[in-house]
Each structure stands twice: as C-alpha cells, then as structure tokens.
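Readers of this paper often ask what the protein records in our data store actually look like. The remainder of this section carries one protein's record, kept here as part of the documentation.

:::
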Amino acid sequence: MLLNCYQDELLEAGCDEAGRGCLVGPVFAAAVILPKDFIPGELTDSKKLSHKQREELRPVIEAQAIAWAVAAVDQEEIDRINILNASFLAMHRAIEQLKTKPAYLSIDGNRFKAYPEIPHTCVVKGDGKYLNIAAASILAKTHRDEYMEKIGAAFPVYQWHKNKGYPTIAHRKASLEYGLTPHHRKSFTVSHPQLDLFVGLSE
C-alpha cells in the first residue's frame, strides 16, 4: 500500500514527469499536493494502470487535491538544453504554478535540480511508493497523452494516437520513411543505437 507522502511535518508536493524517452513532443511534468485523508482507490504508478484507469483517476485527483499543476517543455527547448534539464525545468514550472506553495518536494527518480527555497528528496520508483508522486505521474501522463492525440490527428502515419511519441517500431519506420515533423526532437536520432532500449514501448 502506498503512503500518502514522503514526510508528514511539512506540506509536500509530489512531482513526476512523462515523455522523457519520446522522439516527439514536449516532456510534461506535474506537481500534486494531496490532503492527508485522500482515498487512493486504484491510484498507483501510472505505468501499472490501463489507459481507462488513468483517465478515470485524473478528474478525481484534480478535484480532490489541495493543489495541482501540469507544465511542459517543448521539443525546441529539449533540443536546446537536453532532455534531463528539460525534465527538471518542466517540474520547476509545475511547482511554480501551484496555487498553494509546498514546503517540501518529493521527486520521482534519482536526480533533480533543487527548486529555490524548497527542500526535496529524490525517490527511485517513487510513483510506486507515495500517493502524491503517483498522482503526479497520472496527471503528467494523461495530459501528455491528450496533447499527443491532438497533434497526432495531423500526422496519422506516425500513429501518435497509439504510441504517444515513444519510439515503437512503427513510429521509427514512419520517421525514417516520411522524415521528421516540426514536433520531432531533432537532437534524438531515430537510428541511434540507444533507442533500441525503447523499441516497442508505448507507455
């Protein structure tokens, strides 16, 4: 069973990102402050949930959270500052947009660029340990999926409505055959050997 948050003394926001391993589009991040009496239901790591479950949880989180925010860093910024820094920047933007300022941050993963004047803890696989990080993972994922489906309507050969920009075999083949769109991350080479790690993924 997931705990509500990493620590109980200070008002805490959980943070996570979505789209870091994609070939296309922005990286999205979310920050969520949950009430102590939040009832989790099926809430857990977004990757362990179906699309339907994530879509059902999103309005529950948004309605019951003390505060939540979603932000993005687009593909041009990613190419300019690299995906790691873009992920940090997206989380910073989400934190900045929170209507209630947290006093502590729990971050999914093992690295983070400190946000000014707010202490933080990085938690490896935190979206499977703490509800506030899991909630952030749901919001980042569902908001990004919605964005990819919207822009994908104009570029159907790439199947973004299915792969959401991740480097599936079909997406890579289409990118090599038809070339890159304005939404592609130009710093991500489609034929780069490292992309083999992501073949078949469509989180």
Observations:
- The chain has two domains: 12-150, 156-198.
- The two ends are 23 Å apart (CA to CA).
